[in-house]
Specification:
723 residues, alpha/beta, Rossmann fold, Arc Repressor Mutant, subunit A, 5 domains, 27 helices, 15% strand, binds adenosine-5'-triphosphate, binds magnesium ion, ATP binding, DNA_helicase_UvrD-like_C, ATP hydrolysis activity, DNA repair, ATP-binding
Length: 723
């Protein structure tokens, strides 16, 4: 390979970084300026020009996907496989170290990783074994605490409790938990990093060995490293090797998980002779998208400061669409994606990005309705999520108590003290007499096969389901769901937990109530099925539908966090309204608003050619209608970058100002109804007209019924009457 090949398709600044003499380097630059590309070329340069063996290179990325891509790109540049090069995430690399030196790390050879769910269960058992009350010491909170301490590099004996009783108790739990892990050779995620750090600290020879080995260390997305990761890197660097970090303070979006953007400043302070290179040319986005993103991030204080420019074309304006509600928003997004496809472009090039996982459901349904394949990255599809499956299991038992799968899933969720032994007895009995678990459970109690606490717990569970079914008889579908979620204790269980994940689970549960409220029983099933039965069928069909596989051309869906580092020709940022994005929680914590804005910057800068920003003026959120205004982030975009879109099909959509809610009372052509008018339906009762589309016999109206939620109805069949 000719050296010039490594520099040819780089600009002057990028070449400087790639071809710099060996030394410590910081590449600080905004989104899409080629940081990752520089890192890749630098690695190839080090091998080709500086003759550093692949074996002596350590490269750190943020996700496994990014690591795979990076290896692929370097191998392509070098034209050969480079198996001996270490490329991975902090966790992946630290894990590798522990495997190679398990003994020195005081771990058994066959140590196992404890994932987050297993960790939760273990913490729970520890709390119980210490005779402490779970209500006072919620396991999730303790799990969060333990991981937080580890991320700061702290063992129990290093924690200052200042005589505070609560702090002491938490420390005791941490200690007992750690002892249990050590006894059974278990290592949780935070432990992987901490243990690898300790391994190097406690074994100077080993450390010296790795310091000699890794002549070059390179880190992408450095702005999101946490303290223990920083300390780990710091150890590996010595006089003889050098480190290059690339990052963007404006894209630091994991502060809530302990990432510390100040590590960039620490780096400048802690390392000798750091040369800093700034890249300022953006190659990813159109001038319009770039200008808009720059304007938004400019509202943050205390930035390290950098402006991006591009010599690319101005491109299309950013299209902002104000959906009447979230269904309208989703329909708009789908129609734009269809247009894109009809112009001969692959679906693969479209990404829908959102703030929270729960937002995916409405979008998923709109895509399914039009048979557009999609793939969700870094998360499960709505009906496959753990908490949703739990809640659906309760609904299934209410509908049909002999559903063994549902019974097994939730009989001890939330915990009712039913152990495997008790369930084993019930299972055996069911098998022997060919009964459902539901029947067997009752017989086991009657016949004295179960006694004492076990018998009580089983009986209590049966009464709970019976009680929920009794209540359900008088309830509409969404009330049934609400009762199941609350009455079962699922809601309280997640509420007692702490952290983003528990919060997301609660949001999903509330979203399930919304799904029930919006659910429209298919006309052909109306006679035979109760709404609950029809909904359960709908949910399992949708979950069963296989997700588009990675080779199929499909729309990419993910949270903005997951999209970090990626790029797509067409990007839709959905749900960009106050209260959603920035999220409601933002107001309570200092610094959170700026992190939200950085997240918005990350989202916008994923777009190469076309960016849509959409929001819903009213959104059924967690079972309630909420009215929102456009996000402040939309208002921060200069006017000349934005075009407001209106759909032709929603002919009578009132023309209104971009940032104010619709307020029209014009009648739709010939229909006799106006938006916002109150109407009555023979079955659904009273409601308000929300939306309208089509004309003549195809005309449909959307009515938000007081008792049944929003529904689309064919106007000529609906026989609506004005109230
Ligand atoms: P992010 O901050 O989002 O991680 P980044 O700074 O890492 O972005 P890259 O992903 O490396 O940016 O590059 C963005 C896009 O610009 C890529 O498609 C890349 O191939 C392209 N690119 C980078 N440098 C050049 C260049 N000199 N000439 C042409 N294209 C370039
Ligand atoms: Mg990058």
């Amino acid at each position: 390979m000719d050296v010039s090949e490594l520099l040819d398709d780089l600009n002057q600044k990028q070449r400087e970084a790639v071809g710099a003499p060996a030394g410590n380097m910081l590449v600080l630059a905004g989104a899409g300026s080629g940081k990752t590309r520089v890192l890749v070329h630098r690695i190839a340069w080090l091998m080709h020009v500086e003759n550093i063996a692949p074996f002596s290179i350590l490269a750190v990325t943020f996700t496994n996907k990014a690591a795979r891509e990076m290896r692929g790109r370097i191998e392509a540049l070098m034209g050969r496989p480079l198996n001996s090069m270490w490329i991975g995430t902090f966790h992946g690399l630290a894990h590798r170290l522990l495997r190679s030196h398990a003994q020195e790390a005081k771990l058994p050879d066959n140590f196992q990783i404890l994932d987050s769910d297993d960790q939760y269960r273990l913490v729970k058992r520890i709390i119980k074994s210490l005779n402490m009350d779970e209500k006072q010491w919620p396991p999730k909170q303790l799990q969060w605490y333990i991981n937080g301490q580890k991320d700061e590099g702290l063992r129990p004996h290093q924690i200052e409790t200042h005589g505070d009783h609560t702090q002491q108790k938490m420390r005791d739990i941490y200690q007992a938990y750690q002892a249990a892990c050590d006894r059974s050779g278990l290592v949780d995620f935070a432990e992987i990093l901490l243990r690898a750090h300790e391994l190097l600290v406690n074994n100077p020879d080993l450390l010296a060995n790795y310091q000699r080995r890794f002549r070059a260390i390179l880190v992408d997305e450095f702005q999101d490293t946490n303290n223990i990761q920083y300390a780990w890197l710091r150890l590996l660097c010595s006089q003889d090797n050098h480190i290059m970090i690339v990052g963007d303070d404006d894209q630091s979006i994991y502060g809530w998980r302990g990432a510390n953007v100040e590590n960039i400043q620490h780096f400048l302070h802690d390392y000798n002779n750091v040369s800093t290179i700034r890249l300022e040319q953006n190659y990813r986005s159109t001038a319009t998208i770039l200008k808009a993103a720059n304007a938004v991030i400019d509202h943050n204080q205390g930035r390290l400061g950098k402006e991006l420019w591009t010599d690319g074309s101005k491109g299309d304006p950013i299209s902002v669409y104000a959906g009447f509600n979230e269904l309208d928003e989703a329909r708009f997004i789908v129609s734009q994606i269809q247009d894109w496809q009809q112009q001969g472009n692959p679906l693969q090039e479209c990404a829908i990005l959102y703030r929270n996982n729960a937002q995916s459901r409405v979008l998923e349904e709109a895509l399914l309705q039009q048979a557009i394949p999609y793939r969700i990255y870094g998360g499960l599809r709505f009906f496959e999520r753990q908490e949703i499956k739990d809640a659906l299991s309760y609904l299934r038992l209410i509908y049909f108590p002999h559903d063994d799968a549902a019974f097994e899933r939730v009989v001890n969720t939330p915990s009712r003290g039913l152990g495997d032994k008790t369930l084993g007895i019930v299972r055996n009995h069911a098998r022997e007499y060919d009964l459902s678990m539901w029947q067997a459970a009752s017989q086991c109690v009657e016949q004295g096969l179960l006694k004492g606490r076990a018998a009580n717990a089983v009986t209590a569970f049966r009464s709970l389901i019976t009680e929920l079914s009794d209540q359900a008889e008088h309830q509409v579908l969404d009330e049934q769901a609400k009762t199941a979620i609350h009455g079962s204790g699922l809601y309280a269980m997640y509420q007692a937990e702490k952290g983003e994940k528990a919060q997301a689970r609660i949001e999903n549960l509330e979203e399930l109530v919304s799904a029930c409220k919006q659910f429209e029983i298919p006309v052909e099933e109306e006679e035979e099925l109760t709404p609950l039965a029809a909904f359960l069928a709908h949910a399992s069909l949708e979950a069963g539908e296989t997700q588009a596989d990675s080779h199929q051309d499909c729309v990419q869906m993910m949270t903005i966090h997951t999209a970090k580092g990626l790029e797509f020709p067409l990007v839709v940022l959905a749900g960009v309204e106050e209260g959603m994005f920035p999220s409601q929680l933002t107001h309570d914590e200092p610094g959170r608003m700026e992190e939200e804005r950085r997240l918005c910057y990350v989202g916008m800068t994923r777009a190469m050619k076309k960016l849509f920003i959409t929001y819903a003026e009213s959104r059924r959120l967690y079972g309630q209608d909420k009215y929102h205004t456009a996000s402040r982030f939309i208002k921060e975009i200069p006017d000349d970058c934005v075009e407001e879109v209106r759909l032709k099909s929603t002919l009578s959509r009132p023309v209104h100002n971009r940032f104010s809610p619709a307020t029209s009372h014009e009648a739709f052509e010939g229909s006799g109804f106006t938006l916002g008018q109150r109407v009555r339906h023979r079955k659904f009762g009273d409601g308000v007209v929300l939306n309208y589309e089509g004309s003549g016999e195809h005309a449909r109206v959307q009515v938000n019924f007081d008792d049944f939620g929003a529904k689309w109805l064919v106007l000529s069949f609906a026989k609506l009457e004005p109230v």
